[in-house]
């Protein structure tokens, strides 16, 4: 079932076309990962689907209606977005940040109502930030800070959550912390999650559906097993890779070993380097 899809979507920066005739569908209740090389247009697509950018032509459809023809407040009650590298004013606490997620439900400059406070508390608990609720955002670790921003998006109480590279600049432990949280929210809170993911193996492990973007077009869509193939990786990323099965989860893992079309050159280069070092040691 698809609540969200694009129809003939074209996106441009001034006169430069970035996305060309994109037609994709987002499965409801699933985690979808947009993957692709740097500059492929995946973040631009995410922003346009989240109504942060206006398409040149075509449509983003939410429940069959153009998302760009609906009011900002109404859209904000149906989807939330966490942009890449968000920043908060100095001194802003976790609770204050999360409360911003209730803005679409407030009238004028009205104060928080009982329902607002209930949702804020639930969002903080869901992201396991109870002990930090009065802590300034700038005093949190990277993983904690990202969880606070996710809590703000959760407080918005939407069915659809967009995230643009949510693990950027996080170390390995904090990356897993954020991705496992999103997986948990998908299962327990039934959120449809759409995220741009840089790491292919993270996308394969945590997403049910993958969309591989190449030069603003969908080069491949489907399950991780359908998208994570040597042919797709060669076409989209320009790499040669072996695909193995994760013994724990059963999902495909990418093991890149060369740039596309340069396998022999890379091997010869390594052999020449080793031979040169051997000759130096031998004094030849």
From TrEMBL:
GO molecular function: ATP binding
Sequence ranges assigned to domain ABC transporter in this UniProt record: 4-240
Localization terms from the record: Cell membrane
Keywords: ATP-binding, Cell membrane, Ion transport, Iron, Iron transport, Membrane, Nucleotide-binding, Transport
Major site of localization recorded for this protein: membrane
Key word Transport present: yes
Statement: the UniProt record of this protein carries the keyword ATP-binding: yes
Membrane topology: Peripheral membrane protein
Residue runs in coiled coils: none
Protein name: ABC transporter ATP-binding protein
Organism the protein comes from: Paenibacillus polygoni
